[in-house]
Specification:
Length: about 260
């Protein structure tokens, strides 16, 4: 299944936050959404997963207009891991992961053995089987993030939208989360702050600046010191790391470009 955004504009409180962005996420493609704080990444993602209605433009999910799809259909197809996971229900970890099966059920259907098996497999994928009986609210920020990913894996979505999914995770689990997501073989749209992780995992990146598209393409073709300086106002050097084969970005200490000394 593909996700296509065509000339999407989003106004919030009369401010134009997202300015006519077009992008595509194809089956199996890992697409990164980059840009500094306040550049419109979360707003664009929230529009893509149907929390915000676009002011103009079109979003197609599997070729169908997202706004015209039944909510139950888009809920089944689109998985979301967002930045904020303030769930205050007193549920166990396993119960949270089982919530991922909800979009696949009708009002009267009960949990089937297959649902339990899928939820256990999702917990196993994030390495959290031993936490199944723990209260979700007792977990650390990083553990919560991994359980939210497991819930989303249990949903078996066809497109995954991630808003800063590596927040709270130490480097091992940042790499684990992105590797799991990449291995799913579905379309992924992820807002990322870490440009080095973007270079390692993204097939394509879209870079936002002030709600507009500043650049798009494969990271090794478009991430240049000039682009980083223009978008993030910071100097850096970029080289191909012989150990990984990916670009590595090293930020220069000192003053951001244009800052008063
Ligand atoms: N409901 C709203 N009303 C008015 N402005 C808003 C609203 N929601 C977000 N904004 C503004 O829109 C801009 C883009 O915010 P958004 O959260 O999309 O940026 P972002 O790129 O995800 O930032 P960050 O990297 O800090 O998470 C910001 O200036 C924000 O203050």
């Amino acid at each position: 299944m593909d996700l296509l955004l065509d000339q999407v504009r989003v106004d919030l409180c009369r401010n134009n936050i997202v300015k006519d962005i077009s992008l595509s996420v194809k089956k199996g493609e890992f697409v990164g959404l980059l840009g500094p704080n306040g550049s419109g990444k979360s707003t664009l993602l929230r529009t893509a997963y149907r929390v915000i209605k676009p002011t103009s433009g079109t979003i197609l999910l599997g070729g169908e207009n997202l706004q015209e799809l039944k909510l139950s259909e888009s809920a089944k197809a689109l998985g979301v891991v967002s930045q904020f996971n303030h769930l205050n229900f007193d549920l166990t970890v396993f119960e949270i992961v089982m919530l991922g099966r909800t979009p696949h059920k009708t009002a009267l259907s009960t949990d089937q053995p297959e649902d339990y098996a899928i939820a256990w497999e999702a917990l196993r994928q994030v390495g959290m089987e031993d936490y199944a009986d723990r209260s979700f609210t007792s977990l650390s920020g990083g553990e919560k993030q991994r359980i939210i990913l497991a819930r989303t894996l249990a949903q078996q979505p066809q497109i995954l939208v991630l808003d800063e999914p590596t927040n709270h995770l130490d480097i091992k689990y940042q790499l684990q989360l992105l590797s799991i997501v990449k291995s799913l073989g579905i379309g992924v749209l992820a807002a990322l702050h870490d440009l080095n992780l973007a270079c390692m995992y993204c097939d394509t990146v879209y870079v936002l600046k002030g709600g507009k598209l500043a650049a798009s393409g494969p990271p090794d073709q478009i991430l240049t010191p000039e682009l980083v300086r223009d978008v993030y106002e910071i100097d850096c050097s970029i080289y191909k790391n012989p150990a990984t084969g990916y670009l590595s970005i090293v930020y220069c200490p000192g003053h951001p470009v244009g800052a008063a000394i």
